[in-house]
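Severity: low
Component: inverse-folding endpoint
Summary: output formatting inconsistent between runs
Steps to reproduce: submit the following structure tokens with default settings.
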């Protein structure tokens, strides 16, 4: 079998693009981060300040569809649901963790760049 063309990742029809879009968005990354252990929906929502119920529901469904998490109905009254990472989802914890660590380490530098850019644009626009 021939190796795939490495240039395909830059093409609009690359099959990895929708997957990357679905798993690398802010809420997906944060939802997976809080799933270091199985959690119920409301527990996830409480931990992710600012997420709406609708957005969290959509995020969890996408992650489940992509095989990153599993949804389990609990035999409780009323019926409860919990979410947990699959082995595939677990395999993303390390790279997501590195990305998170990089973001935290460079936040001040990025904010400085944003302020400089905004000031320059305001000055040039005047």
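Observed output (run 2 of 3):
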């Amino acid at each position: 079998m021939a190796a795939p063309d490495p240039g395909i990742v830059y093409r609009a029809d690359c099959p990895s693009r929708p997957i990357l879009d679905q798993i690398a968005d802010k809420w997906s990354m944060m939802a997976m981060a809080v799933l270091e252990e199985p959690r119920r929906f409301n527990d996830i929502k409480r931990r992710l300040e600012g997420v709406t119920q609708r957005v969290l529901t959509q995020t969890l469904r996408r992650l489940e569809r992509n095989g990153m998490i599993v949804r389990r109905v609990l035999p409780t009254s009323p019926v409860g649901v919990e979410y947990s990472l699959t082995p595939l989802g677990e395999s993303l914890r390390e790279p997501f963790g590195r990305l998170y660590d990089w973001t935290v380490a460079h936040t001040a530098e990025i904010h400085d760049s944003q302020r400089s850019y905004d000031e320059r644009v305001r000055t040039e626009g005047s």
